[in-house]
Amino acid sequence: MQTAVFHGERRVTLAEVPRPEPSAGEVLMRVRRTALCGSDTKPWIKGATVTPGHEIFGIVEQPGHRLHGQRSLVYIPVFCGQCSSCTIGDTHMCQSISLLMGWDKPGGYAEYLAVPEQCLLPVPDDIEDDLAPLLLDTIGTTAHAIRFVMRLAPPDDPGPVLVTGAGPVGLGGIIALQNLGYREIFVSDLKEERLALAESFGAKRHPVGEASRKFRLIVECSGAHAARSLGMEIVAPRGVLALVGENDNPWPVQENKAIRRKDFHMVRTFYFPVGDFAANIEWLRRDKTRYRRLVDARFGLAALPQMFARFAAGGLVKPMLAFD
Ligand SMILES: [Zn+2]
Ligand SMILES: [Zn+2]
User: Residue 38: nearest ligand to its CA?
Assistant: First the structure.
């Protein structure tokens, strides 16, 4: 099969390798779509020992297996189903297995991968291939983040909310906030096209760096240190700053009066529990037109090196690697 190899220093090549051999409890999946994700700029720059790609949709190709032919997404965290987290439904925080698909185990920038059976999320036939991967990071992660903080910042309370970063996660966050009943949603981003898209989704612009308005809920999706630190300043008293974006670098914070002299919640969330999946399918089902606007490119594996560079430069929202 063909696979992408991430060498680091922004170099990606293709290689011919044997198809993976599924271990016990795993099935072989033929990949149909893998969405490019901003977090993959890490292996793009630093290199990876396994094939990256973690927003994977494909078809189980395991003749004789009960799941053969099943259209499925791949849930990133491998989980045991029995530990203290898994038994209360927190499959994304499994205490006994710490493996992520596309990070610790080979992912979806390849024609095939082996998938642990419990990580298969079956996708109904009315969800088209191009939209299916959005159910993971774009919808799943943001929906979970907002469901998690809802009790601290209920939708019906007065006051505006802010989404910082209008990439796929931020745009998914705007839709998630609306679906959960929030009104008066502001958005900040440096890129005009992304702001225009966010505006067409019903969010109002908030200038990057502007500190005069206070927000009762801030969903930080950029991962930028400046946005995180400013978020601590402009979150209203009793408000919530939810950190969803990722950043590997040290984050030094200069405390000031705006940060120190108030009570506020700062919350980190990660991915989503498998139990959320059915509800998220309903969201996608009734809002396909808007979600389709996030998928702005589709291309084959041969174009991945060039398309990844274009994506990393910020030129695309949610491009899909496609195997048709
Ligand atoms: Zn991702
Ligand atoms: Zn577990």
Answer: 1
Q: Which residues contact 19 (CB under 8 A, 6 or more apart)?
A: 1, 28, 111, 112
Ligand 2 centroid–CA 81 distance in Å is: 5
Centroid of ligand 1 to alpha carbon of 38 (angstroms): 7
Is residue 52 in a domain?
yes
State the CB neighbour count (10 A cutoff) for residue 316: 20
Ligand number, closest to the Cα atom of 80: 2
Residue 81 lies in domain: 2-130+295-322
d(CA 218, CA 146) in angstroms, rounded, equals 10
Domain membership of residue 276 (yes or no) is: no
What is the model's pLDDT at position 27?
98
Residue 290 included in any domain: no
The ligand with the least distance to the CA atom of 77 is 2
Examine the domain organization and report whether 64 and 184 are in the same domain. no
The answer to whether residues 98 and 61 belong to one domain is yes
Block means of pLDDT (10 residues each) for the chain, 324 residues, are 98 98 97 97 97 98 95 98 98 97 98 98 98 97 97 97 97 96 97 96 97 97 97 98 95 95 98 97 95 97 98 95 95
